[in-house]
Amino acid sequence: MTEFEDICKDNYQSIYKCILGMTGNYDISNDLTQETFLIAYQNGKRFLKHKTPKAFLYKTAKNLVMAYFRRSKTEITLASEEFPEHLVADAFEQMCFKHENAIDAESYRKKILSQLSESDKQLYELYYEKNISMKIIAELLHMNSATLRMKYVRLRKRIKALVKELNLGDF
Q: Is pTM, for the whole model, over 0.70?
């Protein structure tokens, strides 16, 4: 096998799961996954010489998903009823989404995000804006699920403290 084929084989499922987590649609996920690898193929040597080809694939996948939603003007949602059982959000995630959905995030989102570190902004974006499951985020970030959950617990505490500090409403 060639180096390109090895990279594709090693990353195809994780790229597909990432896109599926963002779109919630199997057909769209299949199309965008194939397009991701087509772009990598079209970039040829540039792709293979990339410092981290896997990061290139994830960035390309993210950009394709965002472009898809801009074109279709569809909101990114997590349609868990369409997911296989192993991808459905667990009770912890469901509880977090239920609590977070009751909050008017737009009234303070920009102020809060400006106060967060870059890594916290990334965590916020993946889970709260793109609605990617914690399981997939843990895979993307090469992190233990329990460690990631604790990071989200701490992130929610930081956000809660910032909301109080900035007098942006009840949380």
A: no
